[in-house]
Amino acid sequence: MEASLNFPTETPLTEDLLLNCIENGMSHFKDEEVRAIMEMTSIKTFKKGTILLHEGEIPSKCFYNYKGCVRQFYLKDGEERTTSFFTENQSVTSTAISTGGRKQGSKYYLECIEDTTLSIASHEQELELFKQFPKFETLCRIETERELTQYQEKLAYYIMTSPEERYLNLLNNRSELINRVPLYQLASYIGIKPETLSRIRKRILMK
Amino acid sequence: MEASLNFPTETPLTEDLLLNCIENGMSHFKDEEVRAIMEMTSIKTFKKGTILLHEGEIPSKCFYNYKGCVRQFYLKDGEERTTSFFTENQSVTSTAISTGGRKQGSKYYLECIEDTTLSIASHEQELELFKQFPKFETLCRIETERELTQYQEKLAYYIMTSPEERYLNLLNNRSELINRVPLYQLASYIGIKPETLSRIRKRILMK
């Protein structure tokens, strides 16, 4: 099931990417440590439309998004249901890592909806990095705790809000998504039909 | 803001509690390590109705639930909105830990809705444990990754389902909650008014 990872473009480890890493959480590391960590992972650019993970496939890699957009979706009664967008400087969900390597088929798909540059590590590479750099495990623990808090807040927010409130929240906090993502995916993401989202958008414009 | 933690009953570190810990994730530890870890945290029983954390309060402790039920709720337009129930062998959300000690007021309340026995550790105690037992940090990292996966799945599930599907899911997977939790809290948790939940329950009974 490696087919979906074929034909990406190798992306060189540029100073830009290194700096980006250091600014986004690796500031406790010496530059040479960051370089060593980055060199153990690979960085690849995938074409728009690439499926990184299929439903049923055993996830074996984790992804960190440097540039582009990855969509998570489920198939429910034959219909795509979009549940997440991962953009710049976000970890992309990976059950491979998130369950400590437990072998379980994925319930969802991951699709690049733009040309997307990702850092990729296998579960084995991650464990090796933890062994070589215990500080890296601490960084990952803190990052995972931060992400957990975000997901707990996202779930609470979703429980408490109407689709219109969710759309307004996207406009205010992730407005770049509105232009990058097709309407039907956005609608699905906030839990409504595209027609309902069109009505909400009209109502907001008229205010 | 420590007032909400007053007057709990001290609970002795019994063999039962130790065994429970070992069975739930600490199986990689020697018994004496588990004992040392457990002795650095404290175990207390709180009366039903105790507020463990208020909105605006800086969270300074993390809780693990041995017995009982903790409800997380937000106040939105003066109305309680229930967003989580933490029962036996679940970590209770704690922003103190989840943001690596960042000092930020809580957006929600934590309330014991039954007499509840919790293991309690401060952020400082947690860091000390990580220093003394690096294996404990690994355990916490894996546990946090597992929880993150669960929350990602919960959010995706919530996005994809109707309130009726959510209620049926509770019946099938967390049926104990139905008897332990007041109807208005359950309704809020699945995103509807109590009247709507009553109608759903009647519809299901008639099938």
What does this structure look like?
The structure is a homodimer of 207-residue chains. Chain A has 207 residues and is α+β, with helices and mostly antiparallel strands. Helix content of chain A is 47%, strand content 22%. Chain A has helices at 15-23, 31-40, 95-98, 123-132, 134-160, 163-173, 175-180, 183-189, 194-206, and strands at 9-10, 42-46, 51-53, 61-67, 70-76, 79-86, 90-92, 109-112, 116-122. A five-stranded antiparallel beta sheet of chain A has the order 1-2-9-4-7. A four-stranded antiparallel beta sheet of chain A has the order 3-8-5-6. In chain A, helix 4 packs across helix 5 (134-160). The first copy, chain A, is elongated. Chains A and B meet through strand 5, strand 6, helix 3 and helix 5 of A and strand 5, strand 6, helix 3 and helix 5 of B.
Give the DSSP E fraction of chain A (strand runs of 2 or more residues): 15-25%
H/E series of chain A, N to C?
A: EHHEEEEEEHEEHHHHHH
Oligomeric state of this protein: homodimer
Question: Span between N and C termini of chain A?
Answer: 50 Å
Instruction: Give the rounded overall mean pLDDT of chain A.
Output: 82
The strand order across the widest sheet of chain A is 1-2-9-4-7
Which blocks of ≥5 consecutive residues of chain A have pLDDT under 50? 1-10, 95-101
The assigned structural class of chain A equals: alpha+beta
Basic shape of chain A? elongated
The helix fraction of chain A, in percent, is 40-55%
Most extensive chain interface and residues per partner: A-B, 39 and 39 residues
Give the number of helices of chain A: 9
Number of strands of chain A: 9
Radius of gyration of chain A: 18 Å
Largest sheet of chain A: 5 strands, antiparallel
